[in-house]
Amino acid sequence: MTVLGITGGIGSGKSTVTKALAQRGALIVDADQVARLVMEPGHPVLAKVAEVFGQDILQPDGSLDRALLAQRAFASTEQTARLNAITHPAIGELISEELRKHNAAAAADREVPAVVLDHPLLIESGAIALVDKVAVVVVDVEERIRRLGQFRGISEEDAKARIAQQLSDEERLQHADVVIDNNGSVEDLESQVEALWNEVFGHGS
Ligand code: ADP
Known about the structure:
Elements (H helix, E strand, L loop, with lengths): L2 E6 L5 H10 L3 E4 H7 L6 H10 L12 H8 L3 H32 L6 E4 L14 E6 L2 H12 L3 H10 L3 H5 L4 E4 L4 H16 L4
This protein binds adenosine-5'-diphosphate.
């Protein structure tokens, strides 16, 4: 069973590609979703984060005050590293666990033909070690800024700042087995997904 990792910068089209693969029957592990899970009220990872960054990052109902944590954790690279040292290993373990479960399900059921990990930090987090192949979705920075503004209401300044914090496409491409160029239309993207589906998972129609 091939496990395919999908990565790319913010606004590159990872979710769109992943959704198209899910529609074809792939089992998906969504790293963003796992990252949110460990920050849910009562989760031991959130409790540990509160121990380190202050109990007041927890609101009366136990949920995380994201703005306050961000203010503290992104104040310096040292603080960011402290937060990552708590969250990243736990997220990595959960992702690995989900991939194992999906792999077992896929091996047992011919109707489940593929396993995909959608991970914005696939390379940076080391989760790349958990996948067999890597697909990188690339889009020119200007176009990503435009789409983030149009579809997600993110300001140009904010989009630029977020993009600057991430690896560049050039850096990601060094790890790519498959490159998906999403500068074109959604239909263009869809036909690249179809080709990827056939080539990587051998599901020719
Ligand atoms: P990511 O998951 O990498 O952040 P998304 O898949 O959410 O990116 O795509 C970002 C936004 O751009 C979404 O609103 C999506 O619908 C839109 N989008 C994706 N691909 C295209 C495309 N080829 N043309 C226009 N809009 C697109």
